[in-house]
């Protein structure tokens, strides 16, 4: 199983690091999932946060696009996703620990 997590990002600098931290600190190996972040034309510090995380974590990729809305961002993420499964996470969400490992039993 390989999971693609798609995160549309628009002006989310206040919550973004917590969201990404909650995903990279899961109980499965980073080679089992990717995090595809779509920066939807943010004008705050979100692009810099995304760049920092993508340099630190090999399973995080960032796609920049002009602001077109969450639906377009999700569609871009789907087109870039390489996973067998796709999970949408909003940039202001924090995912509980051990959720990804627990999902393996259902997939």
Descriptive report:
The chain has 107 residues and is of the alpha/beta class. 36% of the residues lie in helices and 23% in strands. It has a four-stranded parallel beta sheet, with helices on both faces. The longest helix is centred in the N-terminal third of the chain and has 12 residues. The protein starts with a strand and ends with a helix.
Which characteristics define this entry?
alpha/beta
Radius of gyration: 13 Å
Q: Flag low-confidence runs.
A: none
Beta-strand content: 15-25%
Distance between the termini: 8 Å
Mean pLDDT: 93
Q: What's the total number of strands?
A: 4
Which outline best applies? globular
How much helicity do the residues have?
25-40%
The order of strands across the largest sheet is 3-2-1-4
* Helical run tally: 4
Helix/strand-derived category reads: alpha/beta
Largest sheet: 4 strands, parallel
Taken in chain order, the helices and strands follow as EHEHEHEH
Topology at a glance:
Layout: E1 3-9, H1 13-24, E2 33-40, H2 46-56, E3 60-65, H3 70-80, E4 85-88, H4 99-103
Parallel strand pairs: 1-2, 1-4, 2-3
What's the short version?
Helices cover 36% and strands 23% of the residues. It contains 4 helices and 4 strands. The protein has a 4-stranded parallel beta sheet, sandwiched between helices.
């Amino acid at each position: 199983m390989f999971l693609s997590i798609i995160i549309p990002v628009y002006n989310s600098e206040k919550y973004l690091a917590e969201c990404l931290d909650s995903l990279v600190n899961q109980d499965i190996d980073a080679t089992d999932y990717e995090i595809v972040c779509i920066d939807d034309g943010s004008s705050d510090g979100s692009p810099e946060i995304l760049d920092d995380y993508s340099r630190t974590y090999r399973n995080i990729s960032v796609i920049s696009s002009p602001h077109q809305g969450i639906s377009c961002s999700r569609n871009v993420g789907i087109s870039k996703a390489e996973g067998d499964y796709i999970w949408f996470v909003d940039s202001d969400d924090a995912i509980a620990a051990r959720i990804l490992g627990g999902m393996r039993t259902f997939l």
